[in-house]
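Data card: per-record layout.
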Amino acid sequence: MKHIRIKKGHDLRIAGRPEKIIKKAAAPRQLKVEPPNFSGIKPKLLVKEGESVKIGTPLFYDKLHPGIKFTSPGGGVITQIKFGERRRIEEIVIELSSAETAVEFGAQGSSALSPGDIKTTLLESGLWPVIRQRPFSRIADPEKEPKAIFISARPTAPFAPDIEFLLGENCEGFQAGLNILAKLTAGKVNLVIPENTAARCLAEAENVDLYSISGPHPAGNVGIQIHHIDPIRPGEFIWYVSVQDVMAIGNLFSKGQLPLEKVICVGGSSLSKHLYLKIRRGMLVKDILKDNTISGEARLISGDVLTGRKTGLENCLGFYDEILSVIPEGRERRLLGWMRPGWDVYSLTNAFFSRLRPRSDSILTTNRNGGVRAIVPFGNWESVLPMEILPTYLIKSILARDIDDMEKLGIYECDPEDFALCAFACTSKQEVSEIVKEGLEFIEAEG
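The structure for this 447-residue chain is written out next.
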């Protein structure tokens, strides 16, 4: 097993880390599906308000790839379909029935299945969207075969679930999911695990190439792992799947029904309880926080504090998100803050006296502590980005819309989440990850 040691990066120490206790959320009355959670698709409705649906009933499909269907996470009645500007589908609300029924897909052993059979079942069940591809972080194209598949079993983002702890609870379906994925590529299935893991189903996984990794965030990002194991060149693409979704794929084929639950981490200093919670897919944030108390004015974030998106109590947790973060809104502005010694300032530089104090969990707010300024290359980005690229030159080439330079500087290996820590450390207050996102969207649009 090859080991990868990451030295650059930083683990954010934020107050409100989830305790390793798994509880089950109370049964919800409503579920939601929000098409905007799926980047790069054009949804076409297959249902209407008042229609009854089962677990696994198709709700809409992607007009760009009609074979990719998105199915209902619950059984009941479609009570509302909300449209936004230009008739864009914003959300589909499902009122759950007291006796839910499910579409049967038939239990199948992986040994007898062909890649075509596997793709058909995943597409019909609505589970295909759990497989994404790089570059561009879109839903994988079922018509193409990737050069490799990556699974990261060591997430390092703030409040990210401990995969060893989760698999200690239940490894069911994990190896079956790996066997299924191995049939979808002639290349390798790369499983990246923690160093010296105690989880047997990780250390003894079959049909995969095992790698161990150590180091600070963003070592757990699949983009960093791809960069160090099998870099993406122009014209190539790689698929990636989360550990819980690998288990969902395995359970779909072994049980013949769409998996309904996943475990998320609920954390943040604005909450009274910080824990692991087993929830229904499509569950509303207000139901997830039903037995929790939010103190003061807080921001709800679907995902981690570096890469997540702002959400509300009436929204559902993001389809791919396994974290719900709740932190204080920061609206105060410190008078002459730049002149203060900064004993209580969380900083990655040596500009404040707080660097002399022992590190402990800090209450971080949404305050940016300053306005956007010109990009000055102090080396802050390079200090937290464990990739052999030149981030300053890449960002400038994106702003200049110079596709040739973007490609030479390695944009195909990049993803916004890999640059989120650069944005946190940026003294110029630039939204570095947003700039990378704009660059990828520009290249994709230009073909």
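Known properties of this structure: Residues 432-446 form the longest helix (15 residues). The longest strand covers residues 76-83.

See the next section for split statistics.
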